[in-house]
Each structure stands twice: as C-alpha cells, then as structure tokens.
Design a protein that fits this description.
The protein has six helices and 24 strands. It is of the alpha+beta class and 438 residues long. It holds the Pfam family Bact_surface_Ig-like.
Length: 438
C-alpha cells in the first residue's frame, strides 16, 4: 500500500513537472515581433498596394496578443472589391515575427484606414492581405500634343487649375504644388508626359513644363489646358501717299531729296511696377510688405542707378535679380521669394514680380489605440522650401528633429513637433496632433 502511495506521488510529481516544462516551452514559442523597419529600408520597389480581402487590418500584427481589427468583414470586402482610387493603400513599415510572418503597416490614400496587415512569409514580396498595383498607366503622347503650346483654361484656386506633385489619388500624400494659378495664366506650357488613372475616373493627366515659371511644373488634368493662341503674323503694308491730286502718284525712293517733318512723341518716363504675392491663397499683406522692403533694400544700388540712367533699363534685368531667390533675413517669419523681372520696351516699364512662400513641412495627425506603436516619422511626408521645390524623402528624413509628448499607454491628446533645418540655415516647423484612444 505504501509502495502504491509512493508510486502515485512520483507520478503526480512527474505530471506536474511535465506540465511546468510544457508551459515554459509554450512561453518560449510565444509570437513576438523581431524587426520593425521603415519600408524605405527594404528592397521594395513599389509602395502602392490594393487590399485582397483575405486578411483584416489590425492595430498591430494580427498574431500578437490583444490585436484589434480595424476593419470589419464587410468593410474588408468593400475594400477588396473597390474601384475607387482613394482605396488604394500606401505601405510604410514592415515587421517580421519569430514565426517568420511578415506584416506591413498601411494607410489608405484617403487616410481613412490605417493599420497592420498580413503580407505572407517573404520579406518585401506582397502576399496575403495585399497585392502590388500600378495606380496609373502611361499614355502615348500624340504629336499634336507633344509639339503644341498650351495655356490654362480656367486659372484660379481650383485643384483642377493648379499643378500637383503627383497625379491626385495616384499615391498617398500627393499634393498641390500651387494653390492659385492666376499668376501663370498667360504662361505657355509644354506637355512632356501623359498618364491615366487605373481606377475610378480613369482621367488622363499631363505633366506640364512652364519655362517662364518652373515652380509651376507638375501634373494637371488634361481638361485643364487649352491651345495657346498664336499671335497674328506681322504683314507689310504698302502706303501710297498722294502728294498731288489723283490720278498722278509720286512714289518717293531713297534717292529723292525730300524733306519731311516728323513729330515724335515724347518718350514715356521709366516706370517700375511691383507685383508681390504669396504662392498660396492667404495673401498675408504684412509679409508681402516685408518682402517688398527687403527686396528694395537688397537691390537699392541697382534701383538708384536706374533712376539716374533710365535708358539702361533693358540691360539691368539680371542685375535686378531676375531668376534669383530672395531670402528673408528676418527669422519671424522666415520666407523665400522668387524674383522675375521683365521690361516692356514700348511702354518703358519694368515689372518686378516677387512670389513668396515660407518653408513648409507636410505632416499628418495621428489616431492610434492604447498600446499601439507610434512612429512619428511615419506621419511626416515632405518638406518644401520657398522655391517651391520639394526635398526627396531620403534627402531630409534624417535631418528632421522630432519632439513629442505622446504616451501610448494613456488615452489623451498629444502633440509632435517636427523641425527641419534647410541647407542655408533657415528652418521649417510643423506640429501634428496625436490622439490616443482605448
């Protein structure tokens, strides 16, 4: 009997020991993320994807504990069958687990959906819940378009009348390069490329080049252009002067010794006109006044010389800064202004146009759930200096200073501030709101 008790006790102890070992082994096999990197650090060549409908979008990798679905089954089906360009997605992070699973963090072009989705077991090869897509396709450019000149059909503040960094809804973060095209209303535009959206409206867009104002170069809907009007060709008119009563006609030649008194109108005094405006819609008059004063201070010697010798106007365009960039020396606010100078010989008028803009950082607000990972750089899209030129992401991403008070463990409203120092010492700053919810 005692032996039986001893054997039973040993068996129980063995079972408990086995249970402990099994539990420890299970714990050792717990799924965890082993890497989480920006997609720019991978060999991915295309960041544009479509939802397949096979896997839901989660607030974190779906295999992790407490992962919550961002999309319902119905919403997932709608996204999988969608023909809206806005429902394409951009991939911006990649994570892998110790089980070999690959997850991608994605955001819809519209910005409505954001989260992690299963992408198979091969890095940088979209499978599972997403597939690689081309959001546009090349369109052959006819000769009558390639060799033609165009102007804007309806210049103004409409999105269809202004140039874009990329075709609208062809990629996440596509934005307007200009917000008011009226200053470019008379510019002749060349078309160098054409593309068509592969979803929804299937509209055709042209890449236009503005040789007069290169800051306007960008993508426009083809319907926004009209053929440039060709001025009439000058014709030679022969005038017969009747110096005696008809029908006798006397034609003067260069050999005749005819003296004529010609009344020459007095020459117009030299006039300098200034056009100062922001490359945008706010038109802050105080800043425009500051820009004008700054220009007149920096080019005071040339302007003074012109008043003394107005006949030299035609030779002074470069000296007046044509094609140059004016930089504010006042740090509040910092801004740039492009300078364009033209001279109307017949009217004796110099026109100085100053298009100004402040350096801009483009960021987006974030909405995340408690416990989510928060990567501030994922919400930073581009930087534009005052010349209207955007910096490539790889050129500036590591030079942005970020400060944030976000605590992903506590629900609340937080803020992240991004500061970018341009090559010449000027800075651009933007603040994004981060909302953490349960």
């Amino acid at each position: 009997m005692n032996n039986l008790k001893i054997m039973g006790a040993l068996a129980g102890a063995f079972a408990i020991g086995t249970m402990i070992l099994t539990t420890q082994a299970d714990a050792a096999k717990k799924v965890k993320v082993t890497s989480n990197v920006p997609i720019t650090a991978t060999k991915v060549t295309n960041r544009n994807v479509a939802i397949t409908g096979k896997n839901k979008i989660y607030n974190k990798a779906g295999v992790l504990k407490n992962a919550k679905a961002v999309t319902s089954a119905k919403q997932l089906k709608q996204l999988g069958n969608s023909q809206r360009s806005k429902d394409f997605f951009n991939v911006y992070r990649m994570a892998t687990t110790n089980k070999g699973q690959v997850y991608y963090k994605v955001v819809s072009f519209e910005g409505k959906w954001r989260g992690w989705i299963y992408g198979g077991k091969t890095k940088a090869d979209y499978q599972g819940g997403i597939r690689s897509v081309q959001t546009t396709k090349d369109v052959p450019l006819p000769d009558d378009v390639k060799n033609a000149k165009f102007t804007l059909g309806n210049p103004g503040i409409s999105g269809t009348s202004n140039s874009w960094t990329a075709i609208p809804w062809s990629q996440y973060g596509a934005r307007l390069k200009t917000t008011d095209s009226r200053p470019y209303a008379n510019d002749e535009l060349r078309v160098t490329a054409a593309k068509q959206l592969t979803r929804q409206y299937y509209g055709t867009f042209y890449y236009v080049v503005d040789d007069t104002h290169p800051e306007f170069n960008g993508w426009l809907n083809s319907s926004s252009l009209k053929a440039a009007t060709t001025p009439p060709t000058n014709t030679t008119t022969t005038v017969t002067n009747y110096v005696q009563s008809p029908p006798e006609v006397v034609t003067n030649t260069v050999t005749n010794t005819v003296t004529k008194t010609v009344e020459v109108p007095a020459k117009n005094p030299l006039t300098i006109n200034y056009n100062v405006y922001e490359l945008g819609t706010s038109q802050n008059q105080a800043v425009s006044n500051q820009i004008l004063k700054m220009y007149q201070d920096q080019y005071a010697s040339v302007l003074s010389e012109l008043t003394k010798n107005p006949d030299t106007a035609a030779t002074k365009l470069k000296d007046l800064g044509d094609g140059q960039t004016l930089k504010s020396n006042d740090p509040t606010p910092m801004n740039y202004a492009s300078i364009a100078v033209s001279f109307d010989k017949d009217k004796n008028v110099i026109t100085i146009t100053l298009n100004w803009v402040q350096p801009i950082i483009f960021v987006s607000d974030a909405q995340i759930l408690t416990g989510d990972d928060y990567y501030p750089k994922s919400y930073l899209w581009s930087v534009m200096d005052g010349t209207g030129v955007s910096y490539q992401r790889g050129d500036w991403l590591d030079r942005v200073q970020i400060s944030t008070d976000v605590n992903t463990k506590l629900p609340g409203t937080y803020h992240t501030t991004y500061t970018f120092k341009l090559m010449d010492g000027m800075t651009a700053t933007a603040t994004a709101t981060v909302t953490v919810t349960k």
